[in-house]
Each structure stands twice: as C-alpha cells, then as structure tokens.
C-alpha cells in the first residue's frame, strides 16, 4: 500500500519475536521513527522486557499502558450486556480487545505526531480488520502499515532468518515453555490456533490448555458463588464489591480451577475462510450464564426476545471489527436501554466444567410473581378464563385460513 | 365457553388423576360421549392401564398410539435443524410434543365423527395454547373444551374430593413414588414445575431429577461417541445406523448416564407470566451441540448467520404453539434449504455433565480448507494483499463519516 | 368484565352519539360518577359542544385538552424518525394517537381519584387494544370498562333506540353532512372504514374523501417546497421555523391541496381479521418521503439498513398498541441514536398526488463525497484497485463452496 | 490482478465505445483470443451492430442471446415475490440483471473453453461486484479481467484518444442523441448517473428521462387496468394471459405513458460510497404495488410481516450481488413458500404518476371475511368478549412490570 513517505509510526508492540522483527523492518524499509505501544490487557505477561527491547532497538517514545480496567469496563461489560456469542460458541475474547488497542494507537499517534500506525496481524486473519477499521473510523487519514501483507517473510523460517541476521533475540514463548500454537490472551480469554488444530478432526493434546484445568482434574467438590449485578454488569462476588477487572480476574481464577470455559470450534472468519480455534474463557463463561439468569428474572419478555434476535448481528459486528461503527452504537443503545432493571444476585454451582444456575433473586426488579404463577389457587391474581379469548383471537387468522383449506 | 351442544368429544387422556376426573366431568357436564386418546411419545409409562381405566369409565372408542417415530422424525428433528433454543436455555421439550398431540386429536375427531376435543392443560400455561392453536389451524370449526378454564376444581384438594366422590382411583405417580412436582415427559425431555420451584432462589432437592444422574455421580471416565449426520439429521451413532426415535433414545441413555442435560431456568410464558422450570434433556443437549458442530464445518457463513438470527423467532413460534402456522412453515423452508450439505461425523467427549466437541469431518461437504487457513506458506491459495482492498472499502463509509467528525 | 364496584370512571368522550350513549349507559349500569375527557389532537372539530353536552348529562369534572403539540412532538415525530409504515402502506395515523389518549385517561384518573376508565372502541378493532395496553402499562390496577364488549347495543339501530329513549340528541356528522363510513381523524390523518369498503373489490365513491382533493382536481402547476430537518425532525418549511404541530398542519394543507396522501388498503388487525380501510395522510406522506431523503444523504449505510430491518417490527408495535412497552422504547433508543446527524434541507415537488424529491443538502452532515463518487478522474480519492481485494475476499466463501460443487 | 497467462476470454460486449476499447485492449495487453457476448435483456437497442463490430475486430466466437424471458421469469419475478426495494426507494433494476449476465459469461466460457471473463464495469461501482461474485460462485477457478481496475484510461478523454488511435468508431449514444449521463437499461428499468446528478441538490433536466413522460405530460384521463396473479407472479393484464417478459414490457408501456416510475435518490453503494441516481421503472412500480395488494388479501398476517422484516436483507443481497449465494437461496425458499396462495386479481388506476389500488379479489384464496369484519351485527362470527382475555393476557407482563414502577 503505497502511502507516500511515512515520518513516524506507532507500532502495537508485544516485545515478542514477530513485532520485534516488524520494529526493525519498519526502521529499515520505511526509514521512519517508530513509537512502540505495549498494553496490559490482562494477557499475563510482564511488560517491562518490552520496554528494554524497544529501548535497545533505538525507540525514543515508548508507551506502556495498563488498560485492564478500561478494557473490562468499556468493552467487555457492554458486550456481555448483549449476551454476545459468535456462531453459538465463541465468546469474542480476541475480537473485543482489538478496538481498544486500535483506539490507543490512534490516540498515541495524535500525541506523538505520528502519521501512521502498524501492527503484527497477518493478512489472513480477523485482527488486521479489527485494528484497521478502528483506526480508520477514529482517524480517517491515518496511514496503516501491515507488514504481513507487504513483506515476503511469510514462513516462520524466513522470519527467524531475518531475526538472526539483525541480532533480534528469539526467546522462548511467554511463560518459559514453547508452544507450537499461535496464541492470544487478555483478561477475557486465551486462544489457540494452528499446528495440529489445522485438522478439525484431530483433538488437541492435553498440554495445549493453559488457563484452566481439565474437568477431570477439577475439584471433586462443587464451588458455589453468588454474583451481584447492577444495571446488567457484575459488580461483585459473594457480597464483595469489586472493580470490573477484579471481577473478571476473580472469575477466571475460580472458573479455571473448576475446569470451566474450554471450547473447541470451527469458525467463519470475516475474510472468508473457516478456521479452527480453541479457547479458554473461564470467567466469561460464568459471567454469560449468570447475566442471562439475572435477565430471566428481571427483563421483560419482549425486550429479552428482541435482544436475542439482535444478538447474532451484534456479535458479528464485534467479531468483524465494527466496534466504532454507527450500527454497533445503535444496537448498544437498544441493549443498554434494557439493562437499568437488571439488578440482583445469581447463585451458581461450578463443578468440573459445569456452570449451573441454582438461584436468582432481585429485591427491586424481580418480575417473577409467584401469586400468579402458582399451581395452587391464586385468589384472583389471574383469571384463567382470559386465556380463552387470548387463544381464540390468536387463532382467528389460522381458522380463517383453515377454512380456505390451508395451513 | 358455551359452544352449543356437544355430541362427542376426543379427550387427550393419560390415565392419571387429572384426565380421569376430566373424563368423568365431561360425561356429567356435557352429557356427551367421550373418546379417549393416549399416545406413546416416549414418556416412559405403560399405556395399557389407560385403556383399562377408559373402558371402566364407559368409553367405547379408545385410541392408543405409538407416535415415537413420528414425533422425532417430523417434529424433533426439523426443530433441531434450526438449532432452536428458547430464551437461551430451553430446548422446547414440552412445546414440540403438543402440536403432534393436537394433530392426532383432530384426526381422531374426524375418524370418530366427534365435534369437540378436550385436554387437561390449565388456563395459566402454554400447553392449552399449543393444543388449541394446532386444533383450530387443522379444523377451524372444532369445539374445544378446556375444563381447567371452566370448572371450579381449581385446587388439588377440590380435585381429590371430586375424584373421591366419583370413585376415581387416586394412584401414586408414574413410577410408583410420589412427586410434589408437576411433570411432563416425552422422548425429548422431562420437566418439573411447581412446589419449591415457585421460589426462584431455592435450589430443588437432588431427588427431583429422574432421567439423569448428577454430574457428581457420573462415571469418572469420559465417554467418546461419534454422531453421523445426513442432511442435518442424526442418522446413527458410532457407525450404527438408527431410526430417529432410536437415535434419541440412545442419546438419552448415554447422556443421562453422564449427567448431561439438566437445566434450571426462569422462562417467559406466552400467557404473560414468568415461571420457573427444571428440565432434563440429555439426548437433546448432545444433539444440539453436535448439530452445530456439523454445521460449523459444512455450512456457509452467511447461511449460518442468517439461521442464527432467525432462530430466536423460530423458537418462540414453537414455544407459543405456532407449529402449524404459515410463518413457521416459511422459516422451516429457509432452514431446510440449508441442510442438504450438513453431512458428516462429529466426535464428542461426554464427561460429568460436559458435552465437548473434539472432532468433526465431512468427506463430501467440508468447507474447511487447510491450504487457505494455514499459518504456514500457502502456495498462493490466498493472496494476503487482497485484504488491503477488502479493509479499505469496508472502512470507506467510516472514513467519510470520520471526516465529518463522527463515528 | 366484573371488576367489583366502580366508583368513578374517566370516559374518553367525543360528544358524538356513541360516547354520549356510553356516558348515559355508564351512569345507569354502573351507577358511578363519570368524568369526561375530550382532546383536541387535530381532528378538526369544535370541542365546546362536548362540554355543553357533558354538563347537560350531569358530569361535574370535564377535561378538555389541546394535545396537538404533545401529539406531534412526542408521538408522531419519534415514529417518523423510524420511517414507520405498517404492511408497506399504512402510516399509522390512528394507531399513534391512541397511546396519548390512553395516557391522559390514566393521568386524569389519578387527578380525579377515579378507579376506572372507559372508551368507545369496539371489540373487533385495534383501538381497544391500544387504549387498554397503554392504560394497564401506566396503571396496572386500573379498571377498564369497554361497553361495546359488554352491552347488547351491537347494531346501529339498537344504539339509536337507546339514544332516543334517553333523550340523547342524534346529530348529523361532524361537518354537518352525514357519512356512511366509520371515520377517525387527528393531525396525522383521517380514516374510513365500513359501508361499501366492506367489499375489497369495490372502489369507494369520490365523495368519501374529505381532506384532500383528488389528484385529478389538484392544481396543474407543481408546488415546490423545502423542508428543514434537525436531528431527524422537520423544524420548518421554506425557511420558516415552525412548531411540530404547525409543521404537520401546514404539510396537511399543502399536501391536501395537491391530492397527496390517499391510500386504499386491506390490512391485518391485531385481533386476527383482515379489514379494509381508506386513509388520507397528506402531511405524513410528504414527511416520510422527505425524512428518508434527508437520511439518504446523512445517515451511515449500515445504520440505515438496520433501521430498515427493524422498521416493520417497530410499526407492528405501534399498530398493536405497544407504545409504552419496553421493546418499543428499546427500538426507539436505537433509532434516536442515529438521528443526531439527520440535519439539512430536502426539496420536493408536489404535483397531483406525487411527492418527488428533487434535491437534498446538508452543510454539516452530508456523507455524499462527490470527489469519490465522480465518474471523472478523482485524484486518488478512491483507489479502484482496492475493489479487487474487496471482491476476492467477499467471494472466497462462495469459491470454496463452489469447489465442492455447490452454490 | 496477475493471474498467469490468459488464453481466451469471454467479454460482456455491448458494441458501445467502452467495451469496444476493452475488446481491443484485451487483444493487445493479454494477447489472447476474445469471445464476445451480447445479450438482449430488453435494453431496447439493436444487437446486430455489435455482431458486425465484433467481426470487424477479429472476433471468431460471437454470442448474441435473447435472454428477456429468462430475465423476467427467473430473476425479476422471484425478486418481486419478495417485494424487494433497496433503501426504501430503489427497485434494483440494474442489480437484478447482473447475475444473469454473469451466469451466461461462465456458461459461454465453459462452452468455448475460455479461462477468463471480462466486463466493462468500473472499479467504483456495484456492477463489478455483482458480475464477479456471480462468476466466482459458478466457477471458482475462473480468471477475471476488469480493465477499469487495471488500465490508466481513467478519464473519458484518455479513452477517446485510445479509441481514435486504434480506429474504434466513436458513435453517438443509443438512440442517436448524445446523453451526458451514464445509463443502463433492461426490461425492468433505465438508470442515470453522473454529470449534473453528482450534486444531490441539483434537479436533473427534463430531457434526461427517456422511458416515461413527465406526470405533467401524461393523459388527463386515468387508465384502469387489472393484473392477474398466480402464485405471486403476474400472469396477465385485463384478462389477457402473457409471458413474463410480455407482462413487463406491457406494464412499461402503460406505466411510461402515464408518467409512472421515476425516482431520484441518493443510495449507498456496496463499495462504501454514496452515489446519486435517477431511475425509470414504470412496469416494476406498478407490479410492486399490485403484488403487495394481492398479498394483502391472500397472505397470512404473520407470513406477510416476516416477509417485510426479511425484505431489506433480501434487497441488500440482490443489490450487493449475492444472487447465487446460499443466503439468498435460503430467503427465496422462505418467500416462495408463501406465494402458493397469492392468486387473484388487482385493479389499479394509473394517473399522472400515481398508481392507485382500487380493488382486489381472489376467488380461491381471499382471507378477507366480511362476516367477521363487518361493523354491523355479525351473527356470532366473532365474539367481542374474546377481546377482553386477549388484551388482558397481552397486558399481563406490562402490568407486572408496572407494579415494579417501570414501563
């Protein structure tokens, strides 16, 4: 993408091999200054090594931000108000983090006077789209450099050669061990792609998973927790109020320990191909189940049904990278308009991979009226005879049609 | 509902207390002949006692039908092609059986020259609606007697008194024990309502559940099975072809043994109230997960997304009783049009309540193309540079808007 | 509907024959005090005669309110932001007025200490539903008396007899002439039902229509007007700012003079039957066309498409009487979130029934970028090569499927 | 798009300047054999001159096909069953023709052993997408040459120079006059873009329009016609059965003479920009109105409403070029499933731009039941008391919520 001369570029920089190569490649190919941006969104890695490496590479402006609270408060929680699941299975852990990174890239570009941004996402995946749609929406004139779509370092071997020739250290993976999978992590999830997952018939090895124990290895005793909700967001656990990031971190801990939140799916990428991914989303899996249960008690039927009908589209928008698009904002406005009443407590039993709702209550907003629903006499709370007219008028169009010998 | 003189009525008759009282009450109140209809839809009860009781009550036309294959083939399976779930949790086990019963009532009315039908559903629930919408759609001129909406036997005590005064035997519940819950069962599920479930904060006792072991009591060893799909329907297990009812029965057995398919929810009834129900749907829970996995490999992305968007409406139609309505048929036509390619095998691990997809394959219809999706060099199967134009044109409207200082 | 003793009832009172009979009937049947409420919502009738008649009938609390501005500002305009049309043809003129009347009935009941409300809508129509859903939503414990569903005055003859026997004056219709049609009017429209319209093959006589000239009788010269929009609402005509009710009244005048806004349709009532109605909506017809044109210039594509997909449901909610329901509020939140940018001017040519958009502009919010769209060289505003990647990735799933010999 | 050596290419060839230049350019640039394909889809031009020019240019395989019946029967009519309108205004006249052209290009490529196709659509418009999505769906391995995205002849001047230098005749426009607009025509419509339309505030000159008289110039006497429908398709006019193409041609004639079917809109292109277009769709405008009227009498309410909700998506799919995509086929299956009952006759008055429905009837499928809808006594066809229960149960959720002080 010839975009004229680049003066300064902000790079989303993890400190790992790929983005270290990109940092060097940008300096060489574009002859421009590089600003690095490294974010803590709960991926569970130390960030200071990234600072040291950037400094060593001659970077003068180094941004290292703790975005965990913003991430959960302004991205994860609004999305969970929508009960968003992509294609029935995927909780959008990677998708929801990208617009936040993209937004910070644009903010830093403005602060540093950079005219371009760059990222390490490949040309085959969804992340490039998510980064770039965000960037273009927030700064229509930004220039974007996506090295994977430009260079010829398209195999791991070529990349390693390039690194070696430039003296870029090739370290072991994040936690000291080496994983053959392509992984991504943040406070909401960790994902795995590639390697033996490229055959959708093959079950991955037990040692792939990193955040959760296998259900088989979880405690033999169930864990019971109570989640407190206010306006659709979880604000505490077992009576203890917590910040958004604290809630999610704690649910990850509890869920992971109980073997909760693993999934293994084939999904449809926005760029047109099917891909296979495995995910661990322990806290999110608990949160989704609990949020739905809270809504089941407090939300009006038709509002709930409309939310369910809009949800797949909302999820696709998030998956495809349209967080900062008018249609996502429009749906969010509809969703948020329903959540004022979603207040109360949900009790859950967690056991070896299972999340079981076993109780829900709301002092202020329960729409469950036992005096109406009871199987016993209800003292006139509900007049059963009303049902006759209800059914007869709902059936009228079917009867008229039936008389024309049709259904 | 005064509907003029009734000559003969077909009653959906289980042989239990409620419908035995109704049988008597119809004879007394309407002075009409009663035809009984008892169906085996897999509820797991003997039907012959119903014949004996009906005979004893003076019934001359007694219908006892085994509808299990028709139930699964023509009702359950089409519904599972839609991946139908009501309100995110309920697999519609009761809902899907009602139109079949209603249809047989109308057929038997035609065969026996009856001018009315009757059922034992209360005036507060969904089942009355499902029976009667079905009946009206298939015979617009049928008369319907819903005793619960007419009589004054509105408490259990009054009902027992009526039974005692007419010499109707009050037996123990189905399996010899007495349950305090209102239950309904068929090949797809068993449901529980009432009693302590009327407080949504209370967890039901462990002895309520009847079809499945608790996850805690399931085997410590996972069970691995393979489900074969043809045109979206499961046609066999572990290489063994089976009829629809056999498939579901076998999945119930395997699922129940592994603690699969329990749920505890608050749902919104069509008649306007929230109610709390517990369900065991072992086979259905496995089937839904497997069908989605089969689709993930074989179904086009946009067809799958459209199915997901239409699903909540389809599920509401089934829940509300509109099986024989043009809008359900219309959605079914759309859904069925997608299923020709849903062929292949899904491998699942079942363990203490968990259904884990661990493999899926389709020789004829897999859309997973490893040569495109690979993280390695792809020999030109996919040109990463295409992504640049894809992103730039998708971003164009956001950029133009951004220039007007909006997102 | 036996609802216990009624002490005081607020009646929606027009002063015409029907509601005068109801007033008397309420006094006789229920022996309760009646409060009358008469609203000016632009129906074009004098209201003071209603006061005189109510006084004569012994009513002590008489409410006569001018609700025209509230009607247009809080009901008509929000609905037009949604571009609402029911079943492709009906602009919801009657539907949108009912929740306002219902709301005032409940407010007046609170002010006067009444425990019930009453209205003159029949048991076959939509209006009873709209009044009563509104009333129940705003006061769940209100009692509602719907005389048409209770009494036996079900023919015009019986009604006249009742009136005669009680000395109720049977006057000519509104404007001094007598119409055989059932009519309803407010600032948005006038409607006709019944009489020869009951055969949908019959064209109504030319003298049925009251608000507009026939296209044949409209001026031979087109009228050109410019409508100013702010945040999706029309705030003025031809440079002249006006209040909401003034805008609509003026558009009615201009539209009616140009033969605009007649329609003749068969529609589906909420109570299950088809009915045939004729409508004159001159101002609304112009407004809808202009609003869409304003959005076409200023609204994002995906927001506009989502609005279009949600519109039919929004229209059904309004038609069915669910104005004060969570799902309508939810949709309204989504719609309103899009309208901040709908600012500018639309120019229209009105000619013998036609509303033709001939220009639209927006200094602040036009998303039309001639430098991109031009057929001439665009100096790099758009890179045509981007389209290649855009198409190729959008086609990818079709190609992969095509290789499996399917489309 | 480097696609390796091309041996033979099938070109969609009109015989006009642009495609004549492309023909030459393909021969020069690709050094390959060119097959020309010219279709009669009702654009109203002679095709034989195209044959002569192709022959003169050295083309050996020349295809000239009359596709009018196929176009209307298999493309236009299925689309009208859906009542498709894009963005509330556009009847998709150009969009619906492209997949047919694309399909024939692929068929001819197969017949002639060509490995590529080519077309004259620019890189800014929708048509390139429609041609190419169709082509890729039907032959995933086809190569596509889109000269406008490759060459540098991006202004009219450069094109003329190229033509002059190669001896390509630059003739006047189709009908002998010269139009400054970019136009496209087929049996469904004629479109205009570019020139003074590039300012959306400017009204085009009266001499732009070609197919219809201005409403001002239409006859002073209305024309009344009756359209016969079978299964949702128009099969005749005024009692005279006609083929699909005959129907549309005749409606174009009648509509055009009565000033019907002009529109002037700003629309959102799939490639991301807004553009302004004017359209004449005389027959289609009549057909849409009549089809809706036929459905209003014969179609079930909920089926009709579901169609309305799905329509905008269906229209977008057609607009964006996804005719041969699974999701369009899926929607078509749903739509077609409803049309079996859409039989009868619609009477219309056409007058100076207006299409007024004045009658509709269906002997076999009318769902209008005057005995139910009547304002007079109905002899028990409808029990008004049923409405009480209907309203009360529909209000129940609102009342329960109201008791929690919410709406």
From TrEMBL, chains A, B, C, D:
Subcellular location: Cytoplasm
An MF annotation (GO) of this entry: argininosuccinate synthase activity
UniProt binding sites for L-aspartate: 122, 126-127
Chief location bin: cytoplasm
Residues reported in the UniProt entry to bind ATP: 12-20, 39, 120
GO cellular component: cytoplasm
Pfam families named in the record: Arginosuc_syn_C, Arginosuc_synth
InterPro entries tied to this protein: Arginosuc_syn_C, Arginosuc_syn_N, Arginosuc_synth, Arginosuc_synth_CS, Arginosuc_synth_type_1_subfam, AS_cat/multimer_dom_body, Rossmann-like_a/b/a_fold
Keyword Cytoplasm attributed: yes
Domain called Arginosuccinate synthase C-terminal: residue spans: 181-400
Pathway: Amino-acid biosynthesis; L-arginine biosynthesis; L-arginine from L-ornithine and carbamoyl phosphate: step 2/3
Start and end residues of each Arginosuccinate synthase-like N-terminal domain: 8-168
Keyword entries, A-Z: Amino-acid biosynthesis, Arginine biosynthesis, ATP-binding, Cytoplasm, Ligase, Nucleotide-binding
EC number: 6.3.4.5
Substrates-to-products reaction catalysed: L-citrulline + L-aspartate + ATP = 2-(N(omega)-L-arginino)succinate + AMP + diphosphate + H(+)
HAMAP family the record matches: Arg_succ_synth_type1 (MF_00005)
Stated family: Belongs to the argininosuccinate synthase family. Type 1 subfamily.
Subunit structure: Homotetramer.
Name of the protein in its database record: Argininosuccinate synthase
Provenance organism: Thiocapsa rosea
């Amino acid at each position: 993408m010839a975009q004229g001369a680049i003066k300064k570029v902000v790079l989303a920089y993890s400190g790992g091999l790929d983005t270290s190569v990109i940092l060097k490649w940008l300096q060489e190919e574009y002859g421009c200054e590089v600003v690095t941006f490294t974010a803590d969104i709960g991926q569970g890695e130390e960030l200071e090594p990234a600072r040291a490496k950037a400094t060593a590479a001659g970077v003068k402006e180094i941004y290292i931000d703790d975005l965990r609270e913003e991430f959960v408060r302004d991205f994860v929680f609004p999305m969970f108000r929508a009960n968003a699941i992509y294609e029935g299975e995927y909780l959008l852990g990677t998708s929801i983090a990208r617009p936040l990174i993209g937004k910070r890239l644009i903010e830093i570009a403005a602060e540093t006077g950079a005219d371009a941004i760059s990222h390490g996402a490949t040309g085959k995946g969804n992340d490039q789209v998510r980064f770039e749609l965000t960037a273009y929406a927030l700064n229509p004139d930004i220039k974007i450099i996506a090295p994977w779509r430009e260079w010829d370092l398209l195999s791991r071997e070529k990349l390693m050669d390039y690194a070696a020739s430039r003296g870029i250290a090739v370290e072991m993976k994040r936690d000291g061990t080496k994983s053959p999978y392509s992984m991504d992590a943040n406070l909401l999830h960790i994902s795995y792609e590639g390697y033996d997952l490229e055959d959708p018939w093959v079950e991955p090895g037990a040692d792939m998973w990193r955040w959760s124990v296998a259900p088989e290895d979880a405690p033999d005793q169930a864990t019971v927790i109570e989640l407190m909700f206010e306006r659709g967001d979880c604000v505490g656990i077992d009576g203890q109020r917590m910040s958004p990031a604290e809630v999610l971190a704690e649910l990850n801990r509890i869920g992971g320990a109980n073997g909760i939140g693993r999934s293994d799916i084939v999904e449809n990428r926005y760029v047109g191909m099917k891909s296979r991914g495995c995910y661990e989303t322990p806290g999110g899996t608990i949160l989704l189940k609990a949020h739905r249960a809270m809504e089941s008690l407090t939300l009006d039927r038709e509002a709930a049904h409309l939310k369910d009908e809009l949800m797949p589209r909302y999820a696709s928008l998030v998956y495809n990278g349209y967080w900062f698009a008018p249609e996502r904002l429009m749906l969010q406005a509809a969703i948020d308009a329903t959540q004022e009443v979603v207040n109360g407590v949900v009790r859950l039993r967690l056991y070896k991979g299972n999340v079981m709702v076993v109780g829900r209550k709301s002092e202020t907003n329960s729409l469950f009226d036992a005096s109406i629903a009871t199987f016993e006499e209800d003292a006139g709370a509900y007049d059963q005879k009303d049902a006759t007219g209800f059914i007869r008028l709902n059936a009228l169009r079917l009867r008229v049609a039936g008389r024309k010998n049709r259904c």
